[in-house]
Amino acid sequence: MSDHRIELTVNGQRLAETVEARKSLGDFLRGDAGCTGVHLGCEHGVCGACTVIVDGVAVRSCLMLAVQADGAEITTVEGLAKSDGSFHPVQQAMRDCHGLQCGFCTPGVLMTMAALTPEGGHAREEELLAAMSGHICRCTGYQGIRRAIRQLAGKNDAAAGAHA
């Protein structure tokens, strides 16, 4: 087995590590980088729980090798909140709209929504809803997540509907 030296930025922190050629990015992020918010569910790219942002794009970390991320900038759920601890808009929307229960799928859902939500702007509801088809949630029935999407899209009734 050959090992490879990689350098990447994870949540703003520069890392240089040696990894096996076959190690997935998800395994690297959880085991080597300590980002335990990256949840490995199906390990086939179907459930979406392992989604992270790689160079601005939502990626299933179980399907990407760590060596493929060499030189990349990666954001995991641990790096989503602002440095002062305040929530990212997608985190706030999920909180406001009760979009989580057990939390297993939540990090991946958050990362997909964050990749599609411009900083300080509104996301496109149709685009977010389509992207959620790549996530499996067994607890929420998706209703809180759909309300959070409406909130992110600037639909003012979204948060109010969460309490109805």
Overview of the structural elements:
With 164 residues, the protein is of the alpha+beta class. Helix content is 31%, strand content 16%. The chain is built from six helices and five strands. A hairpin with a 2-residue loop joins strand 3 and strand 4. The chain is globular. The termini are far apart. The C terminus is likely disordered.
Poorly predicted tracts of residues? 158-164
In which range does the helix fraction lie?
25-40%
Beta percentage is: 15-25%
Structural classification? alpha+beta
Tell the overall outline. Answer: globular
What's the end-to-end separation, in Å?
Answer: 57 Å
Task: Give keywords.
6 helices; 164 residues; five-stranded mixed β-sheet; alpha+beta; single chain
Question: What's the short version?
Answer:
The protein is built from six helices and five strands; from the N terminus they run E-E-H-E-E-E-H-H-H-H-H. It has 164 residues and is α+β, with helices and mostly antiparallel strands.
What order do the helices and strands come in, and which of them pair?
Blueprint (H helix, E strand, L loop, with lengths): L2 E8 L2 E8 L4 H8 L18 E4 L2 E4 L12 E3 L13 H8 L9 H11 L8 H8 L10 H10 L4 H6 L2
Parallel strand pairs: 1-5
Antiparallel strand pairs: 1-2, 3-4, 3-5
Helix pairs in contact: 2-5, 3-4
